[in-house]
Amino acid sequence: MLPTNPSETIFPCPFSKGYGIPARQAWTLLKVFLIYRFVLGCLLIILFYGRLDPTIIGSYNSKLYIVSSQSYLLFTALSGICVFWRLTHYNTQAQLLIFTDIILLTFLMHACGGIKSGMGILLVVSISASGLLIGGRCAMLFAALAALSVLTEQIVVQQAQGFNAISYSYAGILGAAFFTIALLSYVLAKRSEETWRLADQQQQTIVKLEELNQYIIQHLRFGIIIINKNQAIQMANETSLRLISQEMTPIYLADISPDLAKAFETWLADPRQDFVVLQLPNLSEIHTRFSHMPTRYEFFYMVMFEDISRYNQRLQQSKLASLGRLTASIAHEIRNPLGAISHAGQLLSENPALSAQDKRLTEIIQTHSIRVNHIIEDILQLSRRSDSRRERIYLKAWLEQFLESFSLEHAVAEATFELLPVDESLCASMDPGHLKQIMDNLCRNALKYGKPEDGKIILQAFAYQNSPCIEVIDNGTPISPEHLKYLFEPFFTTSPSGTGLGLYISSELAELNQAKLSYHLTDNNRSCFRLCLLDAEKNLL
Questions:
Q1: Counting beta carbons within 10 angstroms of the beta carbon of residue 438, is it exposed (0 to 12), middle (13 to 18) or buried (19 or more)?
Q2: Which pLDDT score is estimated for 3?
Q3: Is the pLDDT confidence value at 494 over 70?
Q4: Interatomic CA distance for residues 124 and 170, integer angstroms
Q5: Exposure of 76 by Cβ count < 10 A (0-12 exposed, 13-18 middle, 19+ buried)?
Q6: Average pLDDT, whole number, for the chain?
Q7: Is the pTM of this model over 0.85?
Q8: What letters, b where the CB count within 10 A reaches 16 and e where it falls short, cover 230-252?
């Protein structure tokens, strides 16, 4: 059986070469041809019994005419059953219809008085149908059969000498007409196949592009909602539903938040107010932006949602990029004269004629030159830092390896740090290089200011408010409340030997990875720096 899928194609004739035609279109054409045959069969019988033109219809052999016309109508009816219920193969059914057309219409032509009766013109329709139904080259085959059939009828008439209607020239002209129609059918079928093939390719391209567009829209990192002028939601991608904590697409914009609908109305009145920070009932914040989206027939509006943390991350990257370029140029300009000062101070300190007081001054020059050089090195880290490339990090194994390497690098006894037990399944989404830099800063500060001689420096990792967190707890003096608000500001330090950039860089790196670095006191009044990271199980890397 032929498939009913309209997108599938068929190759009706084994002698034809082409791309085929759609199955549904082929069956439809076959049904149309069956209807034509049924109407023609009925007319032939009505004309004979109605005696509307007795000089032509069945004038030579009425018995042959009746048998042929009734057989024509009966075979058409049986074929109709097979075609409409798909009981036979398309190729077989179409070829039988054309072949029986040639045979029975030749009999009817003979029964009506031969070729000059005009009945032979009906064969032209059959030859044309063969080109459309079966294929161009098969039409040439059936044209040859029709021409031979007409010629055979003339030979039979000549041999029987039944009537004076022999005309080989007319038979030749009719045969030439058959081949001309067949050739035109071949060209038409070929062009139709090419047109259909091109249309099918374009349709497949459009479908692929539509699927690709849908995939891109649904997997954007931005949430997108399309609304009309009545604020009815026409489309919402998966990201937007996740950001607004909805499983099903809301009907109206106000169903998401009345404040969002009010902000949209404000934007319509004043297009300059095209963004708003929206706080949802679950206390999460999303950055919302409005824009026009005109189409050919209707005007729509697009509402874009972005997680406020991602929005801040992009701002942070832009800020750090600008700051890095500025600090790199400043640090470069300072390092050159600083090197000259340090070198001059070193040469001066080697002078044996210097007094003890002058040597003390050269030591001050060397000490502060080294300190300024450390500040420059910290500043240059801002310009050398790359964008965040987050990976899945299992904190237990990572912290064990970090403590081992940190102890070797800084020649610290293993007993100085203590890593509390960590759940092996606890994992975070973080740039490993950035995490190491943050932990290096925190552990160095703990060694320097955390009084390790009074007790071990504690490292622990745990889940806090559905986020994996790392804490570094030391025995240092608690930071006073008035200093706490400046703790992560650049160049803020309470130590005369500090640069004031370590915690600032650590905080910036944390924000770059959508993490948060904070300070608080433990229950037993110990200083604690807490780094809360993204959960790798809930966030795309």
A1: buried
A2: 42
A3: no
A4: 14
A5: buried
A6: 80
A7: no
A8: ebebeebbebbbebbeeeeebee
Q: Would you state the pLDDT for residue 42? A: 92
Give mean pLDDT, residues 482-509.
75
DSSP H or E run through 373? helix 356-384
Q: How far apart are CA 475 and CA 527, in angstroms?
A: 6
CA distance 366 to 379: 20
Q: How confident is the model at residue 468 (pLDDT cuts 50, 70, 90)?
A: very high
Q: What is the tens place of the pLDDT at every residue in 423-440? A: 888 999 888 888 888 898
85-89, 366-370, 463-467: segment of lowest average pLDDT: 366-370
Tell me how far apart the alpha carbons of residues 152 and 201 are, in angstroms, rounded to a whole number.
46
- Please give the domain boundaries of the chain with CATH numbers for all domains: 9-208 (no CATH), 223-308 (3.30.450.20), 312-384 (1.10.287), 391-535 (3.30.565.10)
- Share of the chain residues as helix, strand and coil, in percent rounded to the nearest 5: 60, 15, 25
In the 8-state DSSP scheme, what is residue 290? E
393 touches 428 (CB < 8 A) = yes
| Rounded-to-integer distance, Cα 21 and Cα 12, Å | 9
Q: What six digits make up the tokens of 431?
A: 């740039």
The pair of structure tokens assigned to 104 is 């029975």
Name the strands in the sheet holding 457-464, side by side, starting at the edge strand that comes first in the sequence. Answer: 417-419, 457-464, 467-474, 527-532, 516-521
Kind and range of the H or E run holding 9:
strand 9-10
